[in-house]
Write a structure and sequence with these properties.
The complex is a heterodimer. By secondary structure, chain A is mainly alpha-helical. Chain A has helices at residues 6-26, 30-34, 44-66, 73-76, 79-82, 101-105, 112-131, 135-138, 152-176; strands at 140-143, 149-151. Chain A is built from nine helices and two strands, in the order ααααααααββα. In chain A, strands 1-2 form a two-stranded antiparallel ribbon. Classes of the chains: A mainly alpha, B mainly alpha.
C-alpha cells in the first residue's frame, strides 16, 4: 500500500471526522439534540451549528488556495436570513466562538434537521477544497485565525483538532443522554 | 454580525512555509496534551471520578484512556526512532503500562469496575492498533 501524502492524510481524516459528527447527531431526537444538560454545556445542535459555521468559514478561506474565491454559504445561500440571524452576534469569526453560554443558548437555531443540512453542505464544500490540496498548496503560507503565520497544512491540522474536540463533546453529551457515549471506529 | 473579520488572513503563493509534517504533528500533539491536562487539573478527584450517567464515562476514565493510547503509540513508534521498521503488533514490551501495572494496576486504571475498559489483560490480548485505531 503506498504511503499517503500529508495532504491525502488530512483529506481522509477530515472526511472521516465529518461523517462521525453527522453520525453522532443522527442518533438524537430533536429534543435530545436541543438539550442543554447544564447552563454551561451547549446542546448537540449548538455544536453541530458551530462545526458547520467553522467548515463554511474555512472553505471560503481555502477557496482561493485551490480554486477561485467563493463566499460562505451562510450568507451567499441566504442561510442567515432564512433562520432569522440578522443582527445576531455570531462571536469570533462568525462561527460562535467566544460567544458565552448565555448568548449561545439564545441563538435562533432551527430544527436539527435544518442545521444538519447546512452543516453537511459546508462539510462537503470544505472536503472538496481539501481534496484539491497538493504538496505545494499544503505548504503555502497561511496566516491563520489566530494570526499565526503558518502553512495551509498546519492550519488544517488545527481545524481537525478543534473539530475533534467538538466531536468528543457530541459523544459525551450523547452519553449523558443515555446513548452510547463512547467514540467508535 | 461578526465580532471579528478575517481580513487579516493573508495568502502568499510565493513563500513556502516548510513547516514539516512531523513538526506539525508534534506541535498539535503537544497542544492537545496540554489541553487535556489543563482540563483535568481543574477538577477535584470527586468531580473527575463522576460518571454523569452509566453511558457517560468520567473525566478520569478519559484521561486514563488517552494516556494509555499515548503509551501504546509511543511504544509502537519506538522502533522507528531506533531506525527499525514499525511493527504495531509487537507493542507490549515497550509500554510503561505493562511495566507499571505489575506494581499497582488499580491505581492506573480506576474505572475497571465499569467493566471491559482498559484493563492490562484486554490491552495485552487485543490488536488494539488494528481494531480501534482512532
Amino acid at each position: 500500500m503506498p504511503i499517503p501524502s500529508p495532504s491525502e492524510i488530512i483529506s481522509a481524516r477530515l472526511n472521516k471526522l465529518d461523517s462521525q459528527i453527522l453520525q453522532a447527531v443522527d442518533a438524537l431526537t430533536e429534543e435530545e439534540a436541543s438539550t442543554w444538560s447544564s447552563a454551561t454545556a451547549p446542546s448537540c445542535k449548538w455544536h453541530l451549528w458551530h462545526m458547520g459555521r467553522w467548515a463554511d468559514y474555512v472553505q471560503e478561506l481555502l477557496s482561493p488556495v485551490v480554486d477561485t474565491k467563493t463566499p460562505e454559504l451562510w450568507e451567499f445561500a441566504g442561510v442567515a436570513d432564512e433562520w432569522g440571524f440578522d443582527g445576531v452576534d455570531l462571536g469570533m469569526w462568525g462561527a460562535g466562538s467566544g460567544l458565552g453560554n448565555e448568548s449561545g443558548q439564545s441563538l435562533p437555531l432551527p430544527p436539527v434537521t435544518n442545521v444538519r443540512s447546512y452543516a453537511k453542505e459546508a462539510f462537503d464544500l470544505l472536503e472538496k477544497r481539501v481534496a484539491k490540496l497538493n504538496d505545494e498548496s499544503f505548504n503555502t503560507q497561511f496566516t491563520d485565525w489566530h494570526d499565526n503565520d503558518t502553512s495551509v497544512g498546519d492550519a488544517m491540522v488545527g481545524y481537525i483538532a478543534h473539530a475533534n474536540r467538538h466531536l468528543g463533546m457530541l459523544e459525551a453529551l450523547s452519553g449523558i443522554l443515555g446513548k452510547d457515549g463512547s467514540v467508535t471506529v | 454580525m461578526r465580532s471579528n473579520t478575517h481580513a487579516h488572513l493573508l495568502y502568499s503563493w510565493a513563500i513556502p512555509m516548510n513547516v514539516s509534517a512531523p513538526a506539525i504533528a508534534l506541535r498539535r500533539l503537544a497542544r492537545a496534551n496540554e489541553l487535556l491536562l489543563e482540563i483535568v487539573t481543574s477538577l477535584y478527584d470527586e468531580q473527575a471520578s463522576r460518571w454523569a450517567s452509566p453511558t457517560a464515562a468520567s473525566a478520569k476514565w478519559h484521561l486514563c484512556h488517552v494516556a494509555h493510547w499515548s503509551d501504546i503509540v509511543q511504544s509502537a513508534l519506538l522502533p522507528l526512532a531506533n531506525g527499525q521498521t514499525c511493527r504495531t503488533r509487537a507493542l507490549n514490551s515497550g509500554m510503561h503500562w505493562a511495566l507499571l501495572t505489575s506494581v499497582n494496576s488499580q491505581s492506573l486504571c480506576p474505572a475497571r469496575e465499569h467493566g471491559g475498559i482498559l484493563t492490562p489483560l484486554t490491552l495485552a490480548s487485543s490488536d488494539v492498533m488494528n481494531d480501534q485505531n482512532p
